Amino acid sequence: MSYPTILVHLDRTAACKVRADLAAQWARAHGSHLVGLISTGLIDGIIPADELQSGATDCIAECAEYLRLRAEAIGHDFRERVAAQGSLSYEVRLIDSTTVDAVVRHGRTSDLVVLGQRDDSEVKDMTTRDLPQRVVMEVGRPVLLVPYAGRFEGVPKNAVVAWDGSRESAVAMRAAVPALRQASKVTLVSCCAVHADSGADRLLVPDVLQFLARHGVHATAESDVTDIDVGDALLSRLSDLGADLLVMGGYGHSRFRELMPGGVTRQVLAQMTVPVLMTH
Known about the structure:
The protein is an alpha/beta fold.
């Protein structure tokens, strides 16, 4: 079990280069084919007025040309960065769909999707502020979310698996096995609020550790009782352990087409400081 195809979403944000480099490093480590996906923005782009020449006679054509050239420039930069790091099977796809639909559709033909964390300071010209949560809820594949701040290099060596015995956490753990195999340290963390049932029978921690061991992952486990918000407790424990990857299930509920993440999921998406491998 591995990630034969890794897809990374590319855009013009400042954090894109870090995300693309990390995706390429994961692809090399797992012998994967890497797909750089770029939505041109023809459908959901908002173009700043100062980007176009004044006096344009055909605004629609000018906008389309601007978006196409911008996407090609992003793809060119991606190719150069991948080639500079050594041999790797890769391709670039330019798609004229909305960004969410493009990532979801192409992500479903991949084994791992790499996205950037939402950055409210990056307003620029794309209306994709809800991209991470939408993709996590809809794509049906594991998603590696990369924080917009910081540098993250190589495959993780110190991973934390958030475990609460739920379907979501089980699916996330299973999807993370290829990454966990390469880690030097794996910690199974269960956070329980004070006065709540610890659910030892439901968690089956010894069985989980045996499951991981049979997949070549040596892990230890800890159970933390906290009087603060579970999301805060989990993020704090990541810092204490010096972790460089968090594995967790993505929790949410649907309202017609709008898919909303649950409380802990939403908090981690907003406050993560290390890459998070998440599935729904």
